[in-house]
Design a protein that fits this description.
330 residues; alpha/beta; seven-stranded mixed β-sheet; 17 strands; 25% strand; elongated
């Protein structure tokens, strides 16, 4: 199979590697333009571009695929990408966390006679958590399971028919970092299964998504990271784990913005102390107890500004013996 691959982050690069290792030929990679990142704010290529360059795969990096853009430069990039894609011989397009909307005319190129169309790897059990941040929102909402859908793409937002679905349980202590890796591995396997079936001439069954249970996973904003201590211990724990590794839940302590990386609701039968939301109540065997609006949170891992992630007990002990209270969100 000759594949056009569109994707940007590591989640996409893992699928790209699996497709390549399965013996399919990736004839073109579409990925986001290089972005400035890191302390030096140097331009950095996406993981998909890095993989493509290592394997001599042609790369296109338009800022948009809309040829109707009001910006002349972006419009010219979109036109060049459209013409290039139109000239390439391929069997199917695979899209994974690309970050750009594919207009109808791009999808139509992949649907020409003899081609199989465009397939998307989406990290949720559609129609739950359509959109940009399905992994984070599933953890934040306390979902007990999630999964991967291979979807036949249309112009709607993650609204196409599914062709292969697999679920997995979300562990009690799961962070977005951990769940991301498990879903990336699962998604890589499923897309290879679909492509292998197509290569073998097997008919692919398309299943329309349910009309009920649709939810949207909005993009994670840095402003969401501030902990609201009036919430329950369960809700705060879910947010801490959902925002690990980005943007990292945080709260102020003695004018320092402390990051929270790992936690769990405390066993209230074992903790009888009580205070105001945000109060540091004391130490557990593995962490620090903090009062919430309801219940007590046991925080296991923290980080001071400019420091490394360390166990929460060591972090709090370094603050001294005074009464410690994290600032509650107004």
């Amino acid at each position: 199979m000759k594949i056009v691959f569109a994707g940007t982050p590591d989640f996409a690069a893992q699928a790209m590697r699996a497709i390549y290792d399965a013996g399919h030929e990736i004839v073109l990679a579409l990925t986001q333009p290089d972005r400035r990142a890191g302390r030096g704010m140097h331009l950095q290529a996406s993981p998909v571009k890095e993989f493509a360059l290592r394997h001599s795969i042609p790369v296109l990096q338009p800022e948009t695929l809309r040829r109707t853009s009001a910006d002349p430069q972006k419009r010219a990039q979109a036109q060049a990408a459209y013409e290039h894609l139109s000239s390439v011989e391929f069997d199917a397009m695979v899209v994974v966390a690309y970050g750009l909307i594919l207009p109808q005319e791009i999808l139509e190129i992949s649907e020409k006679p003899g081609r199989h169309g465009s397939f998307n790897i989406h990290a949720s059990l559609l129609p739950r958590w359509r959109g940009a941040a399905p992994i984070q929102r599933a953890i934040e909402s306390g979902d007990s399971k999630t999964g991967v859908c291979i979807m036949q793409m249309d112009v709607g937002l993650d609204a196409g028919d599914t062709v292969l679905v697999a679920d997995l349980e979300i562990a009690r202590d799961e962070t977005t970092a951990n769940l991301h890796d498990r879903l990336a591995q699962l998604g890589s396997k499923l897309i290879v299964d679909v492509l292998n079936d197509l290569r073998g001439g097997k008919n692919i069954t398309r299943v329309p998504q349910a009309k009920e249970g649709i939810t949207y996973a909005e993009k994670i904003l840095k402003s969401e990271a501030e902990i609201d201590w009036s919430l329950s211990a369960k809700e705060i724990d879910q947010r801490i784990r959902a925002f690990n590794p980005f943007p990292g839940a945080s709260s102020n302590l003695n004018s320092l913005a402390i990051k929270f990386w790992n936690s769990r609701p405390a066993d209230t039968q074992a903790v009888v102390l009580a205070g105001k939301p945000g109060d540091v109540l004391g130490f557990s065997h593995e962490g620090v107890y903090i009062q919430c609006g309801s219940g007590i949170l046991e925080v296991l891992e923290m980080q001071k500004p400019g420091g490394k992630r360390i166990d929460a007990k060591t972090c709090i002990q370094s603050m001294g013996e005074q009464l410690l209270r994290f600032t509650a969100k107004e």
